[in-house]
Structure formats: C-alpha cells, structure tokens
Structure prediction request, 122 residues.
Amino acid sequence: QVQLVESGGDLVQPGRSLRLSCAASGSIFSNYHMGWYRQAPGKERELVAVISSGGSTKYANSVKGRFTISRENAKNTVYLQMISLKPEDTAVYYCNADMTEEGGRYYPGRYWGQGTQVTVSS
Prediction:
C-alpha cells in the first residue's frame, strides 16, 4: 500500500509561481512512474505531467514550457514546479503513483493523493 500526501496549493495571482509536492510512503517509490493530474470544477480529470521511473518526462500541451515535474527518490517525493500561472490552471491537483506506460502513453496508477487546491485569480 502506498500513501500519497500533496502539499503546496494556494491562491496566487496570474503570472506567479507555485511548487507542489507529493510525499509517498513505501520503499519502492523509485520503481514507480509518477504523475500529476488536475480537475477543474465541472471538468474531467486531466493528466498534467508524468515522470517515469527513469526520469523521462511528458507534459500536457497546455502546460508545456510552464510546468516542470521532477522527483527526488531519496525523499520519496515528486514535485510540480509551476510558473506563469493562468486562471485556467485553477483546479485541484492530484498526485498519482504506479502509472503504467504503453506505446508512449501513460495510464493512471492505483494510488492517489487527496488533492491540493490551486487557485489563480487576481
């Protein structure tokens, strides 16, 4: 069993930055593909960024060049650095662990965090 705890969500003005963190329990964190999803009110949950167990990254087109996903295996933690935030980035952000990859596409894993709210508004 893996537990994920997100932190770092906040209310910020457009153009500002935030860094989200996701701390994972368990000793095999380094073996997992990890991802960040987000869900805005009235919308489906969407994949924002993925980092493979080997450190490769993929991003949704809407966040490319603005968001950076990284991981620190020694701390069982994955990060999402967000810059140049826009109102449309407003959502609950969820950490996901044990994602699967097939044909270059990533699919949700078994483990989810509780989510952290990011609100971008002036």
Notes: The mean pLDDT is 96. The longest strand covers residues 91-102. DSSP finds no helices and twelve strands in the chain.
